[in-house]
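Quick log. Single chain, no ligands specified.
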Amino acid sequence: MSYSPLSVSDKVSQIRQSYCPRRAAALRAAQRGTGTLMEPLFKDVSDKELAVLQVLWDRGPSTIGQVTDALYPRPTDADYASVQVFLNRLEDKKHVRRDRSQRAHVFHAVTGREELVGKRLRLVAEQLCGGLMGPLLTHLVRAEALTAEEIEQLRQLMDQLERKPPSRERRR
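-> predicted structure:
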């Protein structure tokens, strides 16, 4: 019997798969081309890219100059160039769309705030809780003091979820 040596990345992959069987199955399906996996399709954003996205969410479609002015109190050419790089990266990751119809290109957020929060929380649940959202949500609710309004919103959400017919497949 002959054994082929594993590369470091192969060993890391095996360790990850042993800790998260659901992710391992999805990875195998994605490699075969028979399934989808959220992580490779979802490109997360850096803190600086997030700051740029927040400007677009709060102010709506904006030019590079408008985003730069919103982020820096006394913007320099280097700040403008940095924002341009962040917007290019966000466009490559499909989080923003560029309108080239005007001389100054206008950028629109494609990924919404709630969508990004949901995807990031799903990734955290996968990494820390074996894909289960319950422990993550429980920790968030217990760790933070909630206002009466937030508690009411949670109650309404729970009521909505209880009225929904159960899905065929339980989401981990």
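The chain has a mean pLDDT of 80.
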